[in-house]
Amino acid sequence: MINVEPGPWSPAPAPTMDEITFKSDTVLSDVHLYTPNQRHLMVRLNGMGQPVFLSQFKLLWNRDSGVKGGDVRTEETPPTDAGSPPGSGCHHEDVSLQAKADTSGQEGLEAQLDEDGDLDVVRRPRAASDPSGPLRDKVHPMILTQEEDNGLGDEARESSPHDFIKIEHTMATPLEDVGKQVWRGALLLADYVLFQRDLFQGRTVLELGGGTGLASIVAATVARTVYCTDVGADLLAMCQRNVALNSHLTAAGGGVVKVKELDWLKDDLCTDPEVPFSWSEEDISDLYGHTTILLAAEVFYDDDLTDALFKTLSRLAHKLKNACTAILSVEKRLNFTLRHLDVTCEAYDHFRSCLRQLERLADGRLRFVVEPVDASFPQLLVYERIQQLELWKVFVEPVMGPVPSAGTAPRLLL
């Protein structure tokens, strides 16, 4: 028998039951979850080497189509009052809006996919008349070719450019890059913008953690200026591409989207002209002087980031010259954890705790009033509006009375 002394090459001790023994650093986009049978065209690799896809969301500006209450409506269903398209001149109650992921593509391709979205290859029956050789199915493969015009197909080519919103995004990324994906919370927030068009008409809007820019682009169809902010040059460049792809939609309503860097972990905005997506003095003056609405969607998945977001929200509120309203979209994600041996939603619970603390914050200058938003408003975008999706409003109002001499925002002890 050979005795082996313990050394650096010895196997590590087995983990105990309360330690995580498996992990995955890849997060799958919601686009896969609620549109499993639809095709998404890969257009390039981004600066991180990740595949970038282009998804088409179709806008139907007509009286015969729409969705309501989370269910897709057929043409026989009465239309939902959704306002008029930007620049259309139509009366508010005459036009409804429905947006759904575009399924147009190669001619006849739908017939080649089974119900799960897999390629259904046509096979001939086994030839019983041919005794030579092994009996097997004879496969007749079909060559799939990419259509021109970004693979949109005949329907997209025959439609007006104003019938589509185009979003470049990734499908699966590490957790730190989830802003490059499309999430249901952003669609819910965009849905609310379309439902409350009058609230956003002519306003200056700031989105925190804008990601692909979907909600900001929709907001700019009615708002005057939308500052879509996030961090990371690669993500901001993707967002800028999406803004350019949909400039025809925002221009119709006279709105503009400005993509800027805003780091929640820093107190000041970046003004270095050498840094991409930095702020000019003119933009900073416009931001603080005119912003009345703040947006944030699906940015409450990490406790540290949630803390940073609420501190940033408080800091900005004390710098804005006007009272403002923050609209927050969150999905209550349920997870089974080994630590609790139960189904929990810790990230959501921390988000709610931060809301309560924000509401209790008192410094003699501002008060924060938190209210949930009834999510039963008509659904104007086709997506899976699950019960776990929530909207919250935070009203920031000045406190009547003398203003303290200290000009700094109070510290949130989150």
How would you summarize the topology of this molecule?
Blueprint: E1 27-28, H1 30-34, E2 41-45, E3 51-62, E4 67-68, E5 71-72, E6 96-101, E7 123-124, E8 138-139, H2 148-151, H3 153-158, E9 164-169, E10 172-173, H4 184-195, H5 197-200, E11 204-208, H6 214-219, E12 225-230, H7 233-245, H8 247-252, E13 256-261, H9 281-290, E14 291-297, H10 303-319, E15 324-331, E16 335-337, E17 342-344, H11 346-360, E18 366-373, E19 389-398
Parallel strand pairs: 11-12, 11-14, 12-13, 14-15
Antiparallel strand pairs: 1-10, 2-3, 3-6, 3-9, 4-5, 7-8, 15-19, 16-17, 18-19
Features:
7-stranded mixed sheet; 414 residues; 4-stranded antiparallel sheet; alpha+beta; single chain
Descriptive notes:
About 23% of the residues have low confidence. The radius of gyration is 25 Å and the shape is globular. The protein contains 11 helices and 19 strands. The termini are far apart. β16 and β17 form a beta hairpin. 35% of the residues are buried. 24% of the residues lie in helices and 23% in strands.
Distance between the termini: 59 Å
Number of helices: 11
- The Rg value, from CA coordinates, equals 25 Å
Largest β-sheet summary: 7 strands, mixed
| DSSP strand count | 19
The main sheet orders its strands as 13-12-11-14-15-19-18
Structural class: alpha+beta
Helix content: 10-25%
Low-pLDDT stretches = 17-22, 61-111, 124-131, 133-154, 403-411
Q: Could you tell me the mean pLDDT?
A: 74
The 3D shape can be described as globular
**Residue share in β-strands:** 15-25%
Give the SSE order as H and E letters: EHEEEEEEEHHEEHHEHEHHEHEHEEEHEE
